[in-house]
Amino acid sequence: MDEEVVIIDEKTRNEKIKNFILENKKIIIIIISIVIISFLVLFAINEIKKNNKIILANNFNDITADFETGKKNNTSKKLKDIIKKHDNTYSPLALFFLIDNDLIENIEEGNILFDILINETKLEKEIKNLIIYKKALLNSGLIDENELLNILNPIINSNSVWKPHALYLIGEYFYSKDEKEKAKNFFDEILILKDINNDILSETQKRISRDYSE
């Protein structure tokens, strides 16, 4: 008897499912179609991104290789175009190449390029912090302390690996202005940080030992 009840219940359940599918066939087809189309669109977008990345990589490699072999025509313009692509890999590399090879014409142009990466490009946190630090480095000889601190605050107020570098840059800035006590405050802050870059730690210790020992 129990087995017959189970069989009847199963048949009833199957019949309900069948009826539900028949009654909602159009909606089900639409939902399935949307899922399939969404999957295909996402797949296509990912493929396009991959292809664009490959094209950008080849473009960057060709530009830098040409520069190294003396073919320097329009190098700066081509690299700026890559920066404006907002790519999280090759846009920073293009800016670093411009900086390392003194291809940025003036501070204003440099700041525009930095801001494209900082404000408009989706970057990994520490890559963004490195770019902020390099922007501060570029500007440090031409701006006042408030402007310098304003640039570096996102790093100083974080646990970034670039925090010691930022503190050292500010310390050196104040030291160059003969504000040695202000400078020492930033040097001292470096010494209490954990897991800091050995080179920065060594330079800070040398600076304090050389210029602040009684």
SS-derived structural category: mainly alpha
Number of strands: 0
H/E order of the elements?
Answer: HHHHHHHHHH
Mean pLDDT: 87
Low-confidence parts: none
Distance between the termini: 101 Å
What Rg is obtained from the alpha carbons, in whole angstroms? 29 Å
Largest sheet: none
Helix content: over 70%
Number of helices: 10
Globally, the shape reads elongated
Estimated share of beta-strand residues: under 5%
Fold and architecture overview:
- By secondary structure, the chain is mainly α.
- Among the domains are: 57-123, no CATH class; 145-214.
- The chain has ten helices and no strands.
- The protein has helices spanning 2-23, 25-68, 75-83, 90-100, 107-120, 125-139, 145-156, 163-176, 180-191, 198-211.
- Helix 2 packs antiparallel against helix 3, helix 3 (75-83) packs antiparallel against helix 4 (90-100) and helix 8 packs antiparallel against helix 9 (180-191).
- The termini are far apart.
Q: Which descriptors apply to this entry?
A:
78% helix; elongated; single chain; mainly alpha; 214 residues; 10 helices
Task: Produce the secondary structure layout.
Elements: H1 2-23, H2 25-68, H3 75-83, H4 90-100, H5 107-120, H6 125-139, H7 145-156, H8 163-176, H9 180-191, H10 198-211
